[in-house]
């Protein structure tokens, strides 16, 4: 008896492989989402709500990654079982996901200039008002101390940002210990502003560079996943 060929039989292995790529793209989005979520949370503590879009985009990336993994598995099942209904559901669902991914990538790229223009003044004012000191337990001061130590910088623009701030009025110091190149030295006394003692440059431009990198990484992840996911859709129908 001759073997009966269905419209999907010759494409079954190819579709299974392509849907595997969709699932892998979903896993990549999940990874980017986790990184964007925690990285965005840290930046939001320092730069304020103007960078909160990275946190929300990370959450969206995480959700869409999970959806893509599920759709990849469902598409593989539909191709294996030659289920037209399952494939149709996956196609319609993936179209929605693709639109969301392209939209999210566009929003991330559009919001970056807003961070650059708005965050500087907001971060400067907030630092002068809310920063308390090196050993203070509040989250804001802790995050800033970590930023200044890791990025080897001082203040938003430079160390003079602390002049006249609530920190100086409370402690009498010109800058916090986080600005020092060697925190444990005697020269790090909060008054010696020598280039050999403290970092002269501010942190804003370095933070902005990190924000730009995260924005482009998330956008690239969304667009890359969209390209991978759109390829199998065009081959689901013979």
From TrEMBL:
The keyword Lyase does not apply. The keyword GTP-binding does not apply. It is a multi-pass membrane protein. Keywords: Membrane, Transmembrane, Transmembrane helix. SUPFAM superfamilies: Tetraspanin. One of its GO terms (cellular component) is plasma membrane. It comes from the Eukaryota. It is found in: Membrane. This is Tetraspanin. It comes from Pongo abelii.
């Amino acid at each position: 008896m001759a073997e009966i060929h269905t419209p999907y039989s010759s494409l079954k292995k190819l579709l299974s492989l392509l849907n595997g790529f969709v699932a892998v793209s979903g896993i990549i989005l999940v990874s980017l989402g986790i990184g964007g979520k925690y990285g965005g949370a840290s930046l939001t503590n320092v730069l304020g709500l103007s960078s909160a879009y990275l946190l929300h985009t990370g959450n969206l990336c995480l959700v869409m990654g999970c959806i893509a993994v599920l759709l990849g598995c469902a598409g593989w099942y539909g191709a294996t079982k030659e289920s037209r209904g399952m494939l149709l559901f996956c196609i319609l669902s993936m179209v929605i996901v693709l639109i969301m991914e392209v939209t999210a990538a566009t929003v991330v790229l559009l919001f970056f200039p807003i961070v650059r223009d708005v965050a500087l003044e907001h971060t400067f004012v907030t630092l002068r008002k809310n920063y308390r000191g090196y050993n203070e337990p509040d989250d804001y001061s802790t995050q800033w101390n970590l930023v200044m130590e890791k990025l080897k910088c001082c203040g938003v623009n430079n160390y003079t940002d602390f002049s006249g701030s609530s920190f100086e009025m409370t402690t009498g110091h010109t800058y916090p210990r986080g600005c020092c190149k060697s925190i444990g030295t005697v020269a790090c006394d909060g008054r010696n502003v020598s280039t050999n003692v403290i970092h002269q440059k501010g942190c804003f431009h370095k933070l902005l560079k990190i924000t730009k990198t995260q924005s482009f990484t998330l956008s690239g992840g969304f667009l890359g996943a969209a390209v991978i996911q759109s390829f199998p859709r065009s081959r689901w129908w013979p």
